[in-house]
Amino acid sequence: MKPIVIVGAGISGLQAARLLEIQGATYLLLEKSNKIGGRVQSETVDGYVLDHGFQVLQTAYPEVQRSLDLTKLDLSYFGSGAYVHQRGQFEPFLNPLKSPFEFFRSIGSGLFSWKDLVLLAFVWFRLQGDVPALDGRKETVGELIDRLGFSLNFKELFLRPFMAGVLLDVSLSQPASLFYFYMKQFMEGHAAIPKAGMGAIASQLAETIPAEKIRMGVSVTGISEGCVELADGERLEYSQLILATEADVAAGLLGVSTSDFKPLASETFYFKAKGFCGVTDYLHLFPKGGRMAHMSCLSKINPAYAPQDSCLFSATTLALGHSAKEIQQELANYLGRKEDDFHFIQSFAIPNSLWKVSDFQDLKEEAARRNIFLAGDYTQFPSLQAALASGRMAAERVVEKTN
Ligand SMILES: Cc1cc2nc3c(=O)[nH]c(=O)nc-3n(C[C@H](O)[C@H](O)[C@H](O)COP(=O)(O)OP(=O)(O)OC[C@H]3O[C@@H](n4cnc5c(N)ncnc54)[C@H](O)[C@@H]3O)c2cc1C
User: Fold this and answer.
1) Fewer CB near the terminus (10 Å): N or C of the chain?
2) Which pairing describes strands 227-230 and 220-224: parallel, antiparallel, or unpaired?
3) Got the DSSP string for 17-47?
4) For residue 39, how far is its CA from the centre of ligand 1 (angstroms)?
5) Is residue 237 domain-shared with residue 373, that is, in the same domain?
6) How many domains does the chain contain in total?
7) 63 and 106 fall within a common domain
8) Does 92 map to a domain?
9) 159: which DSSP letter?
10) Residues 228-267: tens digit of each pLDDT
11) Inter-helix orientation angle 384-402/11-22, to 10°
């Protein structure tokens, strides 16, 4: 019996395989690298847990709640809000609904005015009920933030850098609906990291997939009628095909132009420091002038990310090409410490961290024409929510077609 073939063991491919396993389907998951997880991986270096790029799990994502056992992931939570670097120090802007008492610490920081709070209350009302991630309107996140009428300080020091960090997009040219969607996630859930690192999400999805149904180190190089071709020349017949690769790989395999695809880059640098970390368990934002978009002491949030008596710092840039030395100097400067208090561990430069939202129409049409199912975050919008949901939808469509 020919198997359903899934190409790519990132979150969307693992989700599709997991659901096909539950359905008792005959399938095979092919992954070109030697590790599962795609963009969601973690490794441990000398006792420090390094995620491949700073990422968080939003616990309120509907598909996260449906697909993952959050208790088993043993999550630690970021504080809700952020500390913003201005006038040489970090000022808090904390979520008044989640930390009403701590919120009073934010008053007088100069980050926001009373009018901003009234406007935020309007945004909060707008978040009640269903908030679609994409609503088809043309307005961008940046245009929406300008239109809502917030004060210059609140926009430039908090809202813009915060959303740039969430979307990995300094230009804020993603659809405005994502602003409301992500605000709702932050209001209703937590930004979290699992005890064993973000890679634990992929491991949990893979738990129920039998080893013989995953082939690692296998790169699909072509697709011809009813067959996938592998890099070593092997040809594998399939009954149905799910392409769960990155957008550009799917386009390459289907012979579709990628000229309209816009990648968003990021680089995360990890540093260790001995002793007291000196910052909070919130995200720390750098609105202006510097190289870093944001920084956190991950071991403050989740002590399992570093050995005892040691701290793990992440510093993320939204442009590639900065040296670890430059980031180390900036980190020391911002935290008022000596440069050699910090020791560089490793960095992850990811040119295609996310794909800018687009309809990917040619790709979707070509896949439909060839009866191939697409999964992957880009088919909706860049997020774990979309990766999980697209994997689910692909598996459901395949099962529907098979029965
Ligand atoms: C730095 C960074 C920060 C992020 N932050 C967040 C965040 O905070 N919150 C959030 O929700 N999301 C975040 N994301 C997005 C999230 O990680 C992705 O949405 C999700 O991992 C995408 O999963 P996927 O399955 O769609 O694609 P991928 O993870 O890209 O998986 C594709 C898989 O296909 C495999 N593959 C490719 N070509 C072939 C081939 N020819 N043959 C076989 N296999 C192939 C790849 O090796 C890979 O394993 C972030 C991503 C990055 C990189």
Assistant:
1) N
2) antiparallel
3) HHHHHHTT--EEEEESSSSSBTT--EEEETT
4) 4
5) yes
6) 3
7) no
8) no
9) I
10) 999 999 999 999 999 999 999 999 999 999 999 999 999 9
11) 40
Which of these three, 135, 155, 189, is where a domain ends? 189
Q: What is the DSSP letter of 62?
A: H
Distances, alpha carbon 302 to alpha carbons 162, 194, 198, 298, in Å: 21, 8, 12, 6
Q: Do 51 and 30 have their domain in common?
A: no
Tell me the CA–centroid distance for residue 89 and ligand 1, in Å: 35
| Residue to mutate (ligand 1; options 245, 316, 378; most atoms within 8 A of CB) | 245
* 170: containing domain: 101-189
User: Is 347 found in the same domain as 292?
Assistant: yes
Last residue of a domain, one of 141, 159, 189: 189
- Among residues 255, 245, 258, 259, which one has the least CA distance to residue 224? 255
Full-model pTM? 0.97
CB of 161 shorter than 6 A to ligand 1:
no
pLDDT in tens, 66-109: 999 999 999 999 999 999 998 888 989 988 888 888 787 777 77
